[in-house]
Amino acid sequence: MKYIKYLTIITIISVSLFASSEDEVIQSEELYNKPLSELLNTETELKANVGSRSGERDLLLSEVPIDVITSEQLRQNGSSELSQILERYVAGFNFPRPSITDGTDHSRPFTLRGLNPDQVLVLINGKRVHQSSLLNVNGAIGRGSSSVDLNSIPIASIERVEILRDGAAAQYGSDAIAGVINIILKGYGHKNQVTATYGKTKAGDGEMKRTDLFYSMPLQYDGFFNVTAEYRDRGATNRAGPDRRKLYPDGDSRNDLDAPVTMHYGDAETKDILLLVNNEINLKNGFTFYLNGSYDDRESEAGAFFRSSIDSRNNTNIYPDGFLPIIAPKIKDYSLTLGAKDILENGIKWDLSYSYGFNDYHFYVKNTLNNSLGDSSPTSFDSGGTSYAQQIVNLDLSKKIDKFYVATGVEFRNENYKIYAGEEGSYILGSHGSKAGAQGFPGFQPSNEVDESRNNIALYLDTKYNSEKDLTIGLAGRYEYYDDFGSNVDGKLSLAYKPISEILLRSTVSTGFRAPSLTQSYYTATSISGTSLSQTGTFRVDHPVSKALGATKLKPEKSQHFSAGFVYQPVKDFSFSVDYFYTTIKDRILLTDNITEDVSNEVKSILNQYNVEKARYFSNAIDTKTQGVDLRLRHKYAFEQYGSLKTEIAYQYASTEVTHVNVAPSILGDDGEQLLLGNSTTLIEDSQPKDSLKMYTQYTYHNVVSKLNVNRYGSYKTNLFGTVYNFDPKWTTDVEVEYTFKKSYSFAIGGENIFDVYPDKWNKDTGNKILNKDATMQYSQHSPFGYNGAFYYARFGVSF
User: Is residue 735 part of a domain?
Assistant: First the structure.
């Protein structure tokens, strides 16, 4: 209750500031009375493209709720990752920092409104972005999904980030269930800049070094050639506790020493080289050619579980004290979009484009061994990897006809997903032991290799009617055909009405869908178990063992959406909005638990037939319901002689519950439902905070800009080995002060989580020391703000 009291006080203060200066603010809106020097510093109303085909419009006049994060807000951070920055500004955007989760440590997923990472569509300049080839198969948020790697985009290249908080599959196609993120790249008129940032955690690790260059070359007729280059070096953090297990043979005196820290539990060590180009060539007659492309080369390292000296997987002749396998993937992510657009003499706008996106996730393991190869085992391996490629051809047409705006278009998309095998030593079972493959991450086998493609064609119609009486009606429909599961039709109706000039009422109703990803349909990763060459792991849904155990071809997830709310804006510099949202999703796709011979004699017979010890696969398992509310307050106030103050407060509450579990295959018997769900119920319903609060304040006085960011993360739960742990809400605070001198030079110092707040440690003792308050892994990987503590940084920039 005290937090509600504080929020109420802040709101009252903001409203009071507005009320006391209403006349002054109204007068200041008369732009023609301002001198030129003041006009150049006037901040215009935020604009947004996403959610409408009718072009850029004022944010607060949108018939759907949208957040806009500006380039200035993106710059005012020490964070090196776009996802981490958005998590600090956008209520309902969740970016936990999992550890010891194989590939997920190195390309961490984000969520919106508590839904899955693959239920958010990401665009760059309005064009669909390709997903990562990584499938998150461990217990992290987003288990069983692939997501777009937002951190492959250099921050200095971005003009703004638009976040549509509404279902939009009828406009943009598959995945737009939780919302749409549209990243707008810097275009014409931006200054060239070089920036260097250095930071470190209070604990002394996580050293971050980032250097970026943004260079813009103006071309004729407001054309431009922009290039952004960034080098990012982020050191590892480690918050593992002492390892209190017996690590050495009985009688070894080392067992009596203080417990050492053997594990790595924290951020991976990563190095990125990023490049992004954005180009427009405009001809005198208005014809425009455009191109943008990005490239990210990432090398990363993080630990797996520690193998002690007495672990059966160890070879003491190679590692007498045990070893910590290091998973060290090399990730390449790149994209290219090129196109042309113009306006015909009859007023029809056309836009023709081609996009290509590619992600390659190549696993390497270091400081490891293959126990079955004996003393001759290598200590590093190439474990193979995955790749995903996407090609899209778009043709968009639009025209304004009286009070109507009509847009239509066609899209063709081709996707390809591959799994390629590692070197033989990374997966084989040798003759010197029963533990096959590289410890930490066994290599993909030739039998796991995949090369699958699919095609999709879509047609859409998007219309908007604007009356003279402040009424806007939007109607959108989209037909899609996939050659692997068939067709789908979605529709959307949106309404916006201004009964008086200060209030906008808005509502939407729509249907949506998400096509099962190629990773979910075809991911296969097995390892050799024991001495009989039996397999254990994840099998694609059309594999004979999966089909025998009840797997069927995956269907798309179907959704229904409703939202309603209002915007109150009595004057230009103050607004308040409230939006309620409701989303149901049918046939959500989950990864089953491991199916073993203990289920039944019939299952045992099937597993024996295919020489499999454990198997799991994907299925359309559940229906869910998500509902909640979004609140936004924005206020700007200009003091007569003492600068200006900008305040933004955002709050979201979102609750998801499983409403139906589909009938499990009869072959799985009485345990079928539990095998379908596993720990997914807790993961979906409770492992993300149901509510979040963001308070952003910026004060500008002459050449000094200061930022204060306060975040509240709600409570959450983690289900570990059948025990549910509760974690309390936490508050974090970020500050920054930036000084600009000689107009071209800037220096900033700041801190994130300056009061060194950590999430709760494990709060129950189950008798297993790895789970108590002195645990080796002291914090839940579901913590929404990680567990690094305070981070301090300095930044120097030069504009030219």
Answer: yes
